[in-house]
Each structure stands twice: as structure tokens, then as C-alpha cells.
Write a structure and sequence with these properties.
alpha/beta, Rossmann fold, Arc Repressor Mutant, subunit A, three-stranded mixed beta sheet, 13 strands
Length: 410
């Protein structure tokens, strides 16, 4: 039987769903590039992963963090920054937990003891220490220096340190943002001397990796305002919709082998997904990770048999239409007026007519150049459209919402 306890789909943020779809490039980047280079002592930039709500940013990094823990790495919890919160305070608290995990405090003397004391004060008072002063180094400097000590311990241990700061767009105080980025960035670039076989001393970077996740707005906050330093120390990528092939690949094990659940009689059985049901899930979710999990969850609850059918996908989706609409409306509501007008005008046109010149004309602009920056931002930052010949929608849910009856089903 199917139950809530056995449902393999998990819509929502900050969870690693059992049915994982796509993001192979980002997962491979951690496994094949970031971690090996940092552990080997080679420099590698931090990663900033941005995207609209529901694109799976936090879930992706939590999946990376789970893999890191399995490899024996030291990992912070997901450090979500609430609006108006002090980021230095939250990160300082997390670094102190890493210190405990690394066993640094037990044998600490002199300078390290003083660093611990200062960072404990930062964890209690945060950025306000910068304003009112106090004994010891600046809060961000103490944080950086303690991160270096954690990195040194990781070198001795042979593992990596992973720091994940989430909802970074909520750091609205420019001074606090600057200090946090400097502390983390300086830790990424710091080098230490280590002894290698033969007694030689060589320089290496610390095995520290930093992931920042948040909404696309952060690119303006950190990139444009903080300039080239941020770009040199963090590589930014924007998550967009998943491809249909990724979604089908994620569902294939359910079609072939099924999901094992208790049968109520002390044994187990497999709940399989009909191939047509898989097609229905793929079409309804329009590539959005949140909607993919939502469609699967509702289909699971829509029946009780050993096979999830296409009719159950449709029936379950009817109860999720409101959530699907709200998901797209949140994306559209975040667009500035000119970007929203661009999207609405583009949606009203036939696909073959969607050129920048024609879109500009329909918007009442004198030339394509007048809307060029808007189109570029909708493409490279928002991930809503794709500039081509002609223009097209990259966010298939936005396109479906504006050009059809979706998310309603017959």
C-alpha cells in the first residue's frame, strides 16, 4: 500500500529528495573539480549558485553536503540567512562547531585561544562589534583566522571543509556582506607551508570549499557592488529548468524496478510507475524541480494500487494546480516592471515572431537597443528566456502559464 511515510517524492526546499533529477554538471563539479583540487592543495574558487524559487538551489548543495559527509569531510549546517539577520554571527557560530569537530580547542594555547574567545564574542554579538569596537581583531579578521586554523586541521586529517551560506540575497547591509565575503574569500586564497616526503616545504591552499546560494538578485549585490574581487574568488552559475531527459532518467528506476514499501503483512512489495504516468509527470512539471516533486507526490496519494497510473497523475495534479500557479506567480512577481512587460509581450507573440526588434516595437520602444539589457538580464540572470533567432522561453512553466491553460488539466 502507498502511504505518506513511503512517498519517495519530496516537494519543498532544503531537502534532498529520494527521486533526484538532473544537476549532473554541478554534482560532478564538486566530485571531480572542487573537492579534489582543494584537498590536493590547489586553488579553486568558491561557488555561487543562484536561481529563481523552486529551482532546487538549496537541495543541490545539501546533496553535495551529504556526499561530503560520506567522504569524511567537515560540513557546516545549511546557514540560512533570514532577512535582516547578521551573517557574521551565524557563520561564526558554525565555524565554532567546526572547531569542536576538528578538536582544535582541546589543545589550543596562546593566539588560538584568543581567536576562539574573539570568535565566540562575534557569535554572540556579530557585526555590531565592528560598529562599537572592542578588544582584538575585527570580527571578520578573527573569523578568517579561525577558518585558517580549521583548514590547517583539515590538512592534517586529509579531508575537506564545506561551508554553505544560503539565502545570501537577504544580506542587505553592504558592510556586513563585504566583511563576510572578505573573510570567506581570504580563507579560500590563504596558503600554508607543509612538509612533503623528502623533508621539503611546499606551499598549498587550505582544503576549504564555500558554497553560496540564493536568488538572482545577489549577483547585483555582490558582483556589481563588490567588483572584480568577488568574481575572482567565486564562480557564479544560474540554475534553470531541468531537461526532459533528466526528468525521464530520474523516473526510469520507478518504471523498471519500482519503489519498495512494506506490504502490511511483514513483507515488502514494489510500487511501480506506469510509463504513461511518467510522461504525464514530465509534461506537467515543465522542468521545474519543485513541480516535479509536487506532481509525483500528488500522484502517489491519488491511488492505492501497485502501479501509479497516468489517470492518478492527472487526478493528483488537479489538487496541486493552485500551488503550481503560485509557484509561477512568485517568479513573475519578482520581475521589475520592464522585465515583466517584456515577458508578457513575448508570450503574446507567435513563437516564430519573437525577435528582439519586434518585441521592442510591441513594447513601444524606438529600437531593439532600448530593451537589449532587459533581454540580457532575463536570459543570463533570471533564466526566464533564451536569446536566439527567434527568442524562446527557457522557463517552460512561465511560458505555459502565460500562453495556455496550464496548470489546469482537462
Amino acid at each position: 500500500m502507498r502511504s505518506a511515510v513511503d512517498n519517495p517524492f519530496s516537494p519543498g526546499s532544503d531537502v534532498v529528495p529520494n527521486i533526484w533529477a538532473g544537476r549532473v554538471e554541478q554534482l560532478s563539479d564538486w566530485r571531480d573539480v572542487v573537492r579534489p583540487r582543494r584537498v590536493a592543495g590547489l586553488y579553486e574558487r568558491g561557488r555561487t549558485i543562484l536561481g529563481e524559487p523552486g529551482t532546487g538551489k538549496s537541495s543541490l548543495v545539501r546533496r553535495i553536503a551529504r556526499d561530503a559527509v560520506a567522504s569524511g569531510d567537515w560540513v557546516t549546517p545549511q546557514l540560512r540567512i533570514p532577512s535582516g539577520a547578521d551573517p557574521l554571527k551565524l557563520v561564526a557560530g558554525a565555524v565554532l562547531r567546526l572547531v569542536e569537530q576538528a578538536g582544535i580547542a582541546s589543545g589550543a594555547t596562546g593566539r588560538v585561544v584568543e581567536l576562539l574567545r574573539r570568535v565566540e564574542t562575534v557569535a554572540a554579538s556579530g557585526f555590531s562589534l565592528t560598529v562599537r569596537g572592542g578588544d582584538g581583531p575585527e570580527p571578520f579578521t578573527a573569523l578568517y583566522e579561525l577558518l585558517v586554523e580549521v583548514g590547517r586541521a583539515a590538512v592534517r586529517q586529509g579531508n575537506a571543509v564545506l561551508i554553505h551560506v544560503d539565502e545570501v540575497q537577504n544580506i542587505t547591509d553592504e558592510r556586513a556582506l563585504s566583511q563576510l565575503l572578505i573573510a570567506l574569500g581570504d580563507a579560500l586564497t590563504h596558503t600554508v607551508e607543509v612538509e612533503v616526503p623528502g623533508g621539503r616545504l611546499v606551499e598549498r591552499h587550505l582544503p576549504i570549499a564555500v558554497y553560496l546560494t540564493g536568488l538572482p538578485d545577489f549577483e547585483d549585490m555582490a558582483g556589481a557592488r563588490k567588483g572584480a574581487t568577488f568574481a575572482r574568488r567565486f564562480r557564479t552559475s544560474a540554475l534553470t529548468a531541468l531537461g526532459e531527459d533528466d526528468l525521464r532518467a530520474a523516473l526510469q528506476p520507478l518504471i523498471v524496478s519500482g519503489w519498495v514499501v512494506p506490504d502490511g503483512a511483514g513483507e515488502t512489495k514494489s510500487i511501480t510507475l506506469d510509463a504513461l504516468a511518467a510522461d504525464a509527470v514530465v509534461q506537467l512539471c515543465c522542468g521545474e524541480p519543485f513541480l516535479f516533486q509536487l506532481a509525483g507526490e500528488r500522484a502517489w496519494y491519488a491511488g492505492s494500487g501497485d502501479v501509479v497510473t497516468a489517470d492518478e497523475v492527472t487526478a493528483g495534479w488537479r489538487g496541486a494546480e493552485g500551488e503550481a500557479s503560485s509557484h509561477v506567480e512568485r517568479v513573475l512577481a519578482r520581475l521589475p516592471q520592464k522585465e515583466r512587460t517584456f515577458v508578457d509581450v513575448m508570450a503574446a507573440m507567435r513563437p516564430e515572431d519573437r525577435t528582439l526588434t519586434r518585441i521592442a516595437r510591441e513594447m513601444g520602444e524606438a529600437s531593439a537597443q532600448a530593451v537589449g539589457p532587459t533581454a540580457q538580464r532575463l536570459d543570463t540572470v533570471r533564466g526566464v528566456i533564451e536569446r536566439g533567432k527567434p527568442y524562446s522561453f527557457r522557463n517552460r512553466a512561465v511560458e505555459a502559464y502565460l500562453t495556455s491553460d496550464w496548470p489546469r488539466v482537462g
